[in-house]
Amino acid sequence: MTSTSPTALPPAVMRLRELALSAACAAAVRAAASLGVADALGDEPADAGTLAKAVRADADALERLLRALAAYDVFSELPDGRFEHTDASRLLREDAPRGLRYSALWATEPWTWALWPHLADAVRTGREEFTALYGTEFFDWLHTAEARESAEVFDKAMTQSSVLSAKAIAEVLDLDGVGAMVDIAGGQGMVLATLLEKYPALRGTLFDLPKVVADADPRLREGGALAGRAQLVGGDCRQSVPEGADLYLLKNILEWDDESTVRTLRNVAKSAPAGARVVVVENLVDGSPETRFTTAMDLMLLLNVGGKKHTKAGLSALVEQAGLQLEEVRAVNSYLHMFVSTVPA
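Structure for Multifunctional cyclase-dehydratase-3-O-methyl transferase TcmN, as requested:
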């Protein structure tokens, strides 16, 4: 008589099955963020029933949601059936210092679920699919009444992203001797405010769409601690940028099609004096420990705006094509790279 043991599935089979259902993980993260589960769970473990009462959810369904997330180390299930925080789940808390709640919500907004099934079409054509679905280009749609909630999530997600990167940029970007800088498409101005706080002699201009700068960081607005050295200017960097600064910063904005990227950089080169520095900060699809994140973002940019995340060589070529003189490329941190160039005489 011979004994048999269950045959384990090959790792490749298990991996591909998980990938095919990975949308469930993204949906679970969104559900937890939307319900506020991470905020309801304190420092002590709690059972699903207690948490369900706090977030007004069905106890059994919430337990299943938490178990699914625990499989990805977002929350942890204890032997007695209670759940506790992990480093990842704490990032979904509203009060987390380096939180990602709104970044997670932005990455899973309803329009993203509408776009993903059209990825094969975008790969065939090399063009965005958003306009065909929504009747207008992505950023025009984002400023409509229909997209009001998505726009609010977008602004908060961009602020969270800036919180993560502002300190890192301030540590590596030397602004000694710089009198004036422009933060192009700088959102609400978290990076600019951080740099103004570090360099007391620096003057800065926050340049973004009018509706964006109208809601700038309170430190930069009238009456704010930095308002005396800050200027808020509305406009579109693909059309023109403020003139005469010593340094221009473009962080995570050159993600359109190549023509728009080159046009924006040429606008900077035209408006800046000879010798001015142009600093581009981006996360790349190569040379990064976060290639799963950056390549996923690259595909989303293809779908919604026909844009892309860049390779080091690709972005370097676009900088030079715009007429700028590339001086160096160096890492800011584990996921950001800084391209430093100057405006030739």
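The first helix runs from residue 11 to 20.
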